[in-house]
Amino acid sequence: MAVFTSFDVGVGTIDKSAVNTALTGLSGGGGRSTTNTITAHAGGLQASAVALTTSINNVTVVGTAGDSVALPSATGGQVIYVVNSSATSMNVFSSNSSTADTINGTAGTTAFAIAAGVAVAFISPASGVWRAMVSA
């Protein structure tokens, strides 16, 4: 892969570090960050839910039905994938730092359940809003 240096584009300067970071991410196959082994928080509470910090999240351990993870705060333009690879249903909260965000119009303090073996794409079309698209 080519390594860029700063260069003029007529109106400003492109930061070579930002370009290299973007190209490095894309070269890995899509440019999305992933976490492959997540253990959901035992007890299922919103405030203690495991914070999801990457675009693609594979939850592999759900000890008891209702154990939880939390999406980041919805700012608009985000897509977060959550895969429940465990054999137990789990809960997702809209954020563990805000109760104002919603999932499908439901208050963020209400958990969104993901059955075992199911994947969900959470899409944020606007600030404070998550929409869930559930796999078959």
Task: Break the fold down into its secondary structure elements and pairings.
Elements: E1 7-8, E2 13-14, H1 16-27, E3 34-39, E4 50-51, E5 56-61, E6 68-70, E7 78-84, E8 90-93, E9 102-103, E10 106-107, E11 112-114, E12 119-126, E13 129-134
Parallel strand pairs: 3-5, 4-6, 5-7, 6-8, 9-13
Antiparallel strand pairs: 1-2, 7-12, 8-11, 9-10, 12-13
Looking at this protein, list some descriptive labels.
seven-stranded mixed β-sheet; 136 residues; 1 helix; 9% helix; mainly beta; four-stranded mixed β-sheet; disordered N terminus; Jelly Rolls; 13 strands; 2 domains; globular
Shape descriptor = globular
- Our measurement of the CA-to-CA distance between the termini, rounded to an integer number of angstroms, reads 38 Å
Helical proportion, percent range: under 10%
Task: Kindly state the number of beta strands.
Answer: 13
Q: How do the strands of the widest beta sheet line up side by side?
A: 3-5-7-12-13-9-10
User: Beta-sheet strand percentage?
Assistant: 35-45%
Q: Indicate the mean pLDDT.
A: 83
Q: Uncertain segments of ≥5 residues (pLDDT<50)?
A: 1-10
CATH topology of the largest domain: Jelly Rolls
**CATH-level-2 architecture of the largest domain:** Sandwich
Gyration radius over CA: 18 Å
SS-based structural class? mainly beta
Give helix and strand order, one letter per element, not per position: EEHEEEEEEEEEEE
Integer tally of domains:
2
The main sheet comes to:
7 strands, mixed
In oligomeric terms, what are we looking at?
single chain
Number of helical stretches of at least 4 residues: 1
CATH class of the largest domain: Mainly Beta
